[in-house]
Structure formats: structure tokens, C-alpha cells
């Protein structure tokens, strides 16, 4: 049993932390990424989807190529080390900047 499972097992039903975790994890899946990162991605995210940031956003988003010109927004993601603008500090980030169109 994981440490989190043991911790949650000790909480009474309806405890504030358990409720918060259940709400936060709803419709999200745990994922590991190529750069040895872990995160919680929107349910429905698939291999080949792209994680990126939008100007002014504090969190990364999962997007999916949808044809030659457009992308489909899958949803907001949590990626350890990429939150609160940290993705901007990732080596090579500037090389991948581009304008995209969502449909």
C-alpha cells in the first residue's frame, strides 16, 4: 500500500483533504513523460498529444493535432516542474514556440 493510500485510509469519510483530492483528480489520469516528469492529465489525453503553455496561463495544457492547421484543446494539466511559468525555463522551450489555431 502506498504512503498516500495509508494516509487517506486514516482519514474519516468526508474529510476536507479527501474531498479536495477527489475533486481535483476527477476526470484526470496519472502520467509519466519522456523527460522523467510526472503529472495529472485530462482524461482522454492520448499518446502523441502535446503539452504546452499559452501566453498568460500559469498551467500547461494538453492539445491534439486536428488536421494540418488546427489543434483541439483537451484540457488543463498538472506537470511537476512545469507549473507557474516554470515551463519557460525548460531547456529548448524557445525553439518550440509557435502560434496555433484551436478548433
Order of strands, main sheet, comes to 3-4-5-7
Describe the biggest sheet?
A: 4 strands, mixed
Quote the average pLDDT.
79
Q: Given the structure, what is the number of helices?
A: 2
Task: Please state the overall shape, judged from the principal axes of the Cα atoms.
Answer: elongated
H/E series: HHEEEEEEE
Structural class estimated from helices and strands? alpha+beta
As a percent range, the share of helical residues equals 10-25%
**Low-confidence residue ranges:** none
The first-to-last residue Cα distance is 43 Å
Task: Pick out its properties.
three-stranded antiparallel beta sheet; 7 strands; 2 helices; alpha+beta; 103 residues; four-stranded mixed beta sheet
Tell me what the structure shows:
There is one protein chain. With 103 residues, the protein is α+β, with helices and mostly antiparallel strands. The chain contains 2 helices and 7 strands, in the order H-H-E-E-E-E-E-E-E. The strands form 2 sheets. A 4-stranded mixed beta sheet has the order 3-4-5-7, with no helix packed on it. The chain has a 3-stranded antiparallel beta sheet with strand order 1-2-6, with no helix packed on it.
